[in-house]
Design a protein that fits this description.
Number of helices: 16
Domain Aldehyde dehydrogenase: 5-440
CATH class of the largest domain: Alpha Beta
Distance between the termini: 70 Å
Strand content: 15-25%
Protein name: Ketoglutarate semialdehyde dehydrogenase
GO molecular function: oxidoreductase activity, acting on the aldehyde or oxo group of donors, NAD or NADP as acceptor
Radius of gyration: 25 Å
Number of strands: 19
Largest sheet: 7 strands, mixed
Helix content: 40-55%
Keywords: Oxidoreductase
Strand order of the largest sheet: 11-14-15-9-8-16-17
Shape: globular
Amino acid sequence: MTDTTHLADTTDEQLETVLAAATSAATYWADRAPHERATILTAVADALEGQASALVGVAIEETGLPEGRLTGEVKRTSVQLRMFAEELIDGTFLDVIIDRADPDFVLGPRPDLRRYQIPVGPVLVFAASNFPFAFSVAGTDTASALAAGCPVVLKAHPGHPRTSAATAAIVRDALATAGAPEGVFALITGFEAGVRALKDPRITAAGFTGSVAGGRALFDIAAARPIPIPFFGELGSVNPAVVTAGALDERAEDIATGFVASFTLGAGQFCTKPGILLVPTGSPITDRITALTQQVPAARMLTAKIAEGYHHRIEDTAAVPGVEVLVKGTASTGESGVPEVSPTLLRTTAEHLGAHADTLLEESFGPAAIIAEYGTEDEVHRVLGRVDGTLTVTVHTRTEPTPEEQNELRRITRIAATRAGRLVFNGWPTGVAVTSAQHHGGPYPATTAVAHTSVGTTAIRRFLRPVTYQDAPEALIPAPVQDRNPLQVPQAVNAAGESANWGRSHS
């Protein structure tokens, strides 16, 4: 177990070595059969699980996060690797489509066309601060890029350098033992090294989880390159939650306790934290939420820098006209030197929320939330319409809505679907299930690539691109699109045939 107390910034010479190795390894890694990459990813998962106790110990000291949370994160990290391994064995991710030559095709003679997905090349991953395992060194971006066949250059987050070094050492050793060449994975450190890597033409895509300001700056660099590259950033999200009168009639206490637990979980440092709660005007749930929030103890922020940004954000929000402070959070410095804060709860009206959307409808990364009271459903519609892109929108409804309520809920969900990547009903958005159907994304600024997710097996699609072989000589046809299908991957053959028949029958 590596016990690095300090990680020096990667030098120019070291970065050059890393990028050259990643470029050298790219062809080898891309050419490995999916089942071979699956075996190697599984080996990495095994290694992380085998060192879980030691990793968690380092992370507890460095981040202050509880043992149970970190143990669960290591498990999630290994599970993600295994899920991508299963995806590789399944082969569906290659999206193989074969249309054989057809001289009688309805639009004229059709050539032989064979389409599948190939890796984009070396990927730069910027690790997140708030998940030292699941979204960090061996996290979802790294796992999905490696699964796609792309070498990974991982820029460590300064908030947990020892945890990053320890995890990276395990990943490198596991890859090497399993037969992967040098260059398939490497860790770099330091802001400047990350920017230099992003600008380097050998990097073909990047993944990021962090702030809007930081992510947008990097996104602009990626777009301004002589040859721009895809930048898959998860930035900021306010995650509004709407509570209907019918829901309050049924389970006001459950909603109150669930909301407080959700917005204060992990000191509010989750990207899916519900930052806005829309409730009917005059509802007693506001008093109950206030009382519950006052009982939540102070918790450590991840870094002093994050704590500083949080305090500035709370000051700006509380200063907006029409905003009332229901619970004023406290701050103190713990033994670690990192601030510990208790929650802040604010109240305003839906009208004020919309009028000051530029300030109030922005993410507050930390244990703060706004209760916004609405008088009519139209006010809810207007607020949701003013929300920028968000990861989630939550709606609490009566268990069995009346026909009138159903009609109103359809309007709300229609608006919500234009703003968010995931709609949550009668639950809370914190806690993102790692499954094939998950979509952890949304319109900007939730992400910079609305069509993609950073959680779930479809995250692999970010680091693949389609290529079609037309009338290729048999000796040059890649294995996934060969007629004999040596890799036994799913193939859609002559899918255009039905369209051709349809054209004939209606000509």
